[in-house]
Amino acid sequence: MTENSFTTEITILLADDENLLRGALAALLDLEDNIRVVAQADNGVDAVRLALAVRPDVVLLDLEMPGLDGIDAASAILAERPNQAIILLTRHGRAGVLRRALKAGVRGFLGKTVDPERLAQVIADVHAGRRYIDSEISTAAMMDDCPLSDRELDVLRLTAEGFAVREMGARLHLASGTVRNYLSSAMQKTGTASRHEAARSAGQRGWL
């Protein structure tokens, strides 16, 4: 067990589709005097449902989950509970992912290799209203040279997910012509001939 500056019990929802890792992490967190895992989920949809039903103090989300990824799940939770403390755990600390997470309102962003004692402290810090970003991920973001605007990234992300132009417009509350303009600009900036090539290029560079 580790000593922590917070004596009030912090309740946790833990969501990760890797059952073995999720179980091991839950067991380690339960060793902390002031942390209790009260719910677990193995996909993003259940994570949202449980977060709204159980109302934990802190939600820990894996980035890559079926149903909804960690960032989309965080957005859905925060739409209903704007003050919910959320930490994202990931193996992929790309600058584009960090940008999306911060835009969604995630307070903590950590690599999955974080040691349990450090994670426990970050949970306490985030619960207290502070923000924590893994230093290596933060450094990568500072060095990011992505030329694409947020809207250009949005339409490329939706392209990568298989959405048509009209569907993108509906999701982003934009006219189809505006979506096409963003796609055209993104294609020009990435030096590609189609929106699908632009999405692949941006993904390979870690911008999405």
Automatic annotation (TrEMBL):
A Gene Ontology molecular function term of the record: DNA binding
Q: Which residues carry this modification: 4-aspartylphosphate?
A: D62
UniProt KW keywords: DNA-binding, Phosphoprotein
- Domain of life where this protein originates: Bacteria
Response regulatory domain location? 11-127
Record InterPro entries: CheY-like_superfamily, Sig_transdc_resp-reg_C-effctor, Sig_transdc_resp-reg_receiver, Tscrpt_reg_LuxR_C, WalR-like, WH-like_DNA-bd_sf
**Ranges for the HTH luxR-type domain?**
141-206
Annotated GO biological processes are: phosphorelay signal transduction system; regulation of DNA-templated transcription
Q: What is this protein called in UniProt? A: LuxR family two component transcriptional regulator
